[in-house]
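Quick entry, no commentary yet.
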Amino acid sequence: GFLRKKPVEMVQCLTVDVDVPANAEFILEGYVELGEKRTEGPFGDHTGYYSLEDEYPVFHLTCLTHRKNPIYATTVVGPPPMEDYYMGKAIERTFLPLMRMQIPEILDMCMPAEGIFHNLMLVKIRKSYPMQARKVMHAVWGLGQAMFTKCIIVVDEECDVQNYSEVAWKTLNNIDPQRDIEFVLGPIDSLDHSSRMVNWGSKMGIDATRKWPEEGFTRRWPDVLTLPADVKERVAEMWKKAGL
């Protein structure tokens, strides 16, 4: 409904008391017995790894219906970037305005392909008070499935988070690791094979913003090296004269 900007037409299932989208390609009806599990996997997954076998709930199929000439939508997964990455990128852009409704200081965000959605989020903010980057990290970890984000890097508004090279350059120059990296414990994606336990582990936030005196930073902060406008103009004229 959010994407269509109008309500979704619903119909009643045939064997279970549930309403489903009327124009769905396939409807699988059934039930789950509480506590019943079976071994499933390993499967090739969007992480680029084979997710390990584990115990998962069993779904008992009671009915299958479909549209005439239905389309079975699926993706090929593997080491990123694959098809699912571009779906994730579309979701990133669609939900950014909704995230900004909760955290208005966020100007932009990016989830690089190498982070397979939930392993890395780059966040650009308009910083207006001390420790604001920390507040943003914890706010993101409190937003629905954003709680699974393993690493969050927060940068100032002049940094382009869609430019990974610029983010790496400014992050590595702007942080004192002991001071600016924070570790927390919380929910982790089920497919994260590195977490200490299934579904929970540690997460990392990096404050790569310019540090303020109010944050205990007493040294001078340097400006980014840039060419004056008149020098750029002179160089451009020299290129023209050289035929380049």
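second:
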Amino acid sequence: IDDGTLRKRITGLKDLFVARNEISHELDLQRPERQGDRSRRTRQMKSTVKLCHEGLEVGQLVLNEVAVLLNTG
């Protein structure tokens, strides 16, 4: 993909993947010792929704670019 703007948006998804990795590791690696024992971090819904929407939008743009490349090749 040669679109510089899209490439920058892809690079900008770092925070999304950091959050995703933190969430998945906390769910996989932290077992509560007793009922109600939680050591997971909290996340604000607004910022989480923003990260998810950006990830989905960039993913769609990548798919669109790939479709163009496949149809012109």
